[in-house]
From TrEMBL, chain A:
Source taxon at top rank: Eukaryota
Signal peptide region: none
Parts of the chain that traverse the membrane: none
One MF term in the entry's GO annotations: Atg12 conjugating enzyme activity
Family named by the database record: Belongs to the ATG10 family.
InterPro entries hit by this protein: Atg3/Atg10
Biological process terms in GO annotation: autophagosome assembly; autophagy of mitochondrion; protein modification by small protein conjugation
Name of the protein this chain belongs to: Ubiquitin-like-conjugating enzyme ATG10
Keyword Kinase: no
Keywords tagged on the record: Autophagy, Transferase, Ubl conjugation pathway
Pfam families, A to Z: Autophagy_act_C
GO cellular component labels: cytosol
Organism listed in the record: Macrostomum lignano
TrEMBL record, chain B:
Any one Gene Ontology cellular component term annotated for this protein: phagophore assembly site membrane
Protein name, UniProt field: Autophagy protein 5
Protein family: Belongs to the ATG5 family.
Ranges for domain Autophagy protein ATG5 UblB: 180-261
Topology within the bilayer: Peripheral membrane protein
InterPro entries: Atg5 (IPR007239), ATG5_HBR (IPR048940), Atg5_HR (IPR042526), ATG5_UblA (IPR048939), Atg5_UblA_dom_sf (IPR042527), ATG5_UblB (IPR048318)
Record-annotated Autophagy protein ATG5 UblA domain positions: 11-104
Locations listed in the record: Preautophagosomal structure membrane
Function: Involved in autophagic vesicle formation.
Source taxonomy: Eukaryota, Metazoa, Spiralia, Lophotrochozoa, Platyhelminthes
Organism: Macrostomum lignano
């Protein structure tokens, strides 16, 4: 790890600023919430709906379908970094079939990064897992490389002025999480407007 | 003579006799299987589908077979958890053996159960668990340095019950100094809800002596005073057991030490007669 690490408390303190930076600039409805039995674990919830092309197999009826995305931004103590959990469902709440969910993520990543279909090994980084506090099945992107990314982002921003190895400045933490979201949000079609960084 | 390795081997070799039944068609004969405690139920899906195809006339590609799920004592089996852990969690006490597990082909509980299949493989989930464990121990350095071939070998070793194939790679994950030890503490409520507790625990106390299981409970459940036992693989552990020792010998192949919280003291004769535990729920993350 090259840069100072994000702590859970720095992340928690940065969430209100994250919300403030995104509100009004991103059209997704969003709010801060708490999860866990003690309601002491803050997360940020965002949701929206996308119109996507109908299943390719059904060539006769390629009417667009509505996919609802519900996104949770939380913190992983194990990786000391933010983590994304999301649900993809039809308007009636029925979860998307796993193949459709994988296609949705793949299309979003490809359209934002331009990577060719065959080179993306989604299976190794996208899994449906029980949400750590809620327990219900949600998709997540394996955070294995996130800590590296955060380290690079924080070391570039001189966020560790007191040499503690941890990001203590709330502003720096919020910007680090925002940068992380810029990268990982793409998987669900979330595009962070550049104005959020101002 | 008992070598240290033999405890890990015994843990690996532990198996549970399971009897899979199809309540929706009582004419279908049950499927009996010796299932590894450290394995996962979804690994048996192909076998179950083949059984249904042969005896229940349910085609393997049909929606019923594809959306198959499992139930025990009226509750969906949370099959992302290892088989042995699920058995040890059953309340009020572990069921008689062979363990009767119901196969269901309708009404998959999408809000409760992770769905495993070609687009969300059990192998990918297993790797996800290994990565998190290594993140806690080594900031994910060891697992990230391993290539896909070694990741694959860990999974194949588990799937095919090949201890040596698994261990030769797993050794790298299990050796060396760990920053935090990967563990989870589970408690099944009488209402079927499952509490899962996970926190950061170092192998040593401030004074460098080994952290014990009772230290762990004090960290995770600081307001808790009732006598409890921590058990794993069906065995109750003395509270003075060093966490690092328990981890080294008793961790599951996913590199987590999965501990079940039970009422009563270790070695007590109580076997489930006590009703719901009196726990300070303010420190427990309740998971439905």
């Amino acid at each position: 790890l090259s840069g100072p690490m994000l702590s859970r408390s720095a992340f928690n303190e940065a969430l209100p600023q994250l919300l403030a930076r995104l509100s009004g600039r991103l059209s997704w409805p969003m709010r801060l919430a708490t999860v866990g039995a003690e309601s002491d674990t803050p997360v940020m919830e965002l949701q929206t709906s996308f119109l996507v092309a109908g299943p390719a197999a059904d060539a006769s009826d390629s009417a667009p379908v509505l996919v609802q995305v519900r996104l949770h931004i939380g913190f992983s103590s194990a990786y000391a970094c933010p983590v994304l959990h999301f649900c993809l469902s039809q308007p009636d709440g029925v979860p998307l079939a796993a193949s459709d969910a994988a296609d949705f993520v793949r299309v979003n990543v490809e359209s934002s990064t331009g990577e060719a279909a065959g080179q993306l090994d989604l299976a190794s980084v996208l899994s449906q897992v029980p949400h750590p506090q809620l327990g219900c099945p949600m998709y997540t992107l394996h955070p294995c490389r996130t800590a590296e990314l955060i380290g690079r982002l924080t070391s570039a921003s001189e966020a560790d002025r007191d040499g503690s190895g941890e990001v203590r400045d709330t502003n720096a933490a919020a910007l680090a999480v925002l940068s992380w979201l810029t990268v990982y949000g793409r998987a669900v079609g979330l595009q962070v407007p550049p104005e959020c960084f101002l | 003579q008992t070598t240290p390795d033999s405890i890990q081997r015994q843990v690996w070799d532990g198996k549970l006799p399971v009897c899979f039944v199809l309540p929706e068609d009582p004419d279908v004969p049950p499927l009996y299987s010796l299932v590894p405690r450290v394995g996962y139920f979804p690994a048996l899906l192909d076998r179950l589908r083949a059984h249904l195809s042969r005896h229940a006339g349910i085609d393997e590609d049909s929606p019923g077979a594809q959306q198959l799920w499992l139930r025990s004592a009226g509750r969906p089996l949370r099959w992302h958890l290892p088989v042995g852990l699920l058995y040890d969690l059953e309340r009020p006490k572990p069921p008689p053996l062979p363990w009767e597990v119901e196969i269901r082909t309708r009404d998959f509980p999408t809000d409760e159960l992770v769905s495993f299949g070609p687009n969300n493989s059990l192998e990918s989930y297993f790797l996800y668990c290994l990565k998190e464990a290594d993140a806690l121990k080594h900031r994910a350095r060891v697992i990230n340095e391993m290539g896909e071939r070694e990741h694959r070998q860990l999974w194949q070793g588990l799937l095919n019950d090949q201890f040596d194939q698994f261990s030769v790679v797993n050794r790298k994950l299990m050796e060396g100094e760990a920053k935090y030890l990967p563990f989870r503490i589970y408690q099944q409520g009488a209402d079927g809800g499952l509490s899962v507790l996970q926190c950061l625990a170092k192998p040593h106390r401030e004074d460098s002596t080994p952290l014990t299981l009772s230290d762990l409970l004090r960290i995770c459940l600081p307001n808790f005073t009732d006598p409890v036992t921590l058990a794993t693989h069906g065995v109750s552990l003395p509270m003075e057991t060093p966490l690092a020792w328990a981890y080294d010998k008793l961790a599951y192949p996913d590199n987590f030490l999965h501990l079940v919280l039970q009422p009563g003291r270790c070695n007590s004769a109580g076997d489930g007669e006590s009703s719901a535990m009196q726990l300070d729920s303010s420190r427990i993350l309740t998971v439905i």
